[in-house]
Amino acid sequence: MYKTKLISTLLIVLLGFGLFAAVPQAQAAEDTVRFGYVQWPGVTVKTHVAAKIAQYLGYETEMTAAPESVIFKSLENKDLDVFLGNWLPTMEKTYAEYEKKGVVHNVRVNLEDVVYRTAVPEYVYEAGVKSLADLQENADKFGSKIYGLEPGNAGNIVIQDAIKNNNYNLKDWTLQSSSTAGMLSAVQRAVNNEEWIAFNGWKPHYMNLMFDLKYLEDPEGIWGEEDSVYTVAREGYQDENTNFYKFLEQFTVTAPIQNVWIDEYQNKERDPEVVAEEWIANNIDIVNQWVFGMDSVDGRMARKVIVEKVSN
After folding, report:
1. CA distance 66 to 72
2. CA–CA gap between residue 281 and residue 274 (Å, rounded)
3. Between the chain's N and C termini, which has fewer beta carbons within 10 Å?
4. Please, what sign has the CA dihedral across residues 269, 272, 277, 281?
5. pLDDT, tens digit, for every residue of 103-158?
6. pLDDT tens across 27-55, in order?
7. What are phi and psi of 9, to 5 degrees?
């Protein structure tokens, strides 16, 4: 099973008493992979998939769920090694702070064809709200409110900055922070009553199947350019664990794959570790591409080891 907290281990070596042989050796630091993830369904399952592959290859795995700001700080402090959910340009403000320090870097894009932007139900869009520029003239219908995610979330910051800077004349609006589940519950209530609501939506996510929704145009570009999700590693990790770093360089998924993960985990309420195990077993051809040229911790060919693991 995964360790879900960061653990520090103290080894006491009693050389003077000749007891060194009796003291068990701790697994080398490079044989432990420490993942951070925000509790969005897509990156949650994605992280479980990557961690399960690491575990099959003989690595110890530690997984820490935290807000993005905490994750980047933990990468800087070397308390974490990897983050698979750097959604850019939405997270640019947080990421850039640590990139400039030289303590983190993007390894590669692991997911394209993504959108993170303010959305409305289709009936609101058809009524004339097609752009963020259309919100203010309909402020009363929206209650001058946009629903977002947890405090500190990058999308929340985009809207809070827009309110502060009066982009789209939003100076009198408020952002309603919530969780994914809380925000979607508010959307569901509004849709059930055909009320107007604006919220920060994204895809891939099953909300796009739950609701007929539309993403608003952004002529002022507050949401940035086209989005992609990157794998981030702390600086130095590529030298400390060259074998697993190869996995990070080769790990990429598609929106349809992540849609399946999200549906299984959040919509069907299945354990993300179980979802990961089943998906790996049924998609060895894709996994083989991710681990090409890698070895297990004990020096065997990674592809053969994973086939053995999923066959047991």
Report:
1. 10
2. 11
3. C
4. positive
5. 999 999 999 878 889 999 999 999 999 999 999 999 999 999 999 998 888 899 99
6. 445 689 999 999 888 999 999 999 999 99
7. -120, 130
Q: Which tokens in the block code for residue 187?
A: 């959307």
Angle, alpha carbons 114-120-122 (nearest 5°): 100
Token pair listed for 291: 């681990």
Distances (CA, A) of 283 to 52, 253, 287: 14, 12, 6
d(C-alpha 312, C-alpha 237), whole Å: 32
**CA–CA gap between residue 179 and residue 195 (Å, rounded):** 20
Q: Give the gyration radius of the chain's Cα atoms.
A: 22
**Predicted confidence (pLDDT) per residue in 180-196, tens digit:** 889 999 999 999 999 99
Comparing C-alpha atoms, which of 206, 90, 101, 100 is closest to residue 148? Answer: 90
Judge contact between 278 and 48, C-beta under 8 A.
Answer: no
249 with 18: CB under 8 angstroms?
A: no
Q: Which domains does the chain have, with CATH numbers?
A: 33-113+226-311 (3.40.190.10), 115-215 (3.40.190.100)
User: What gap in Å lies between CA 113 and CA 227, rounded to an integer?
Assistant: 7
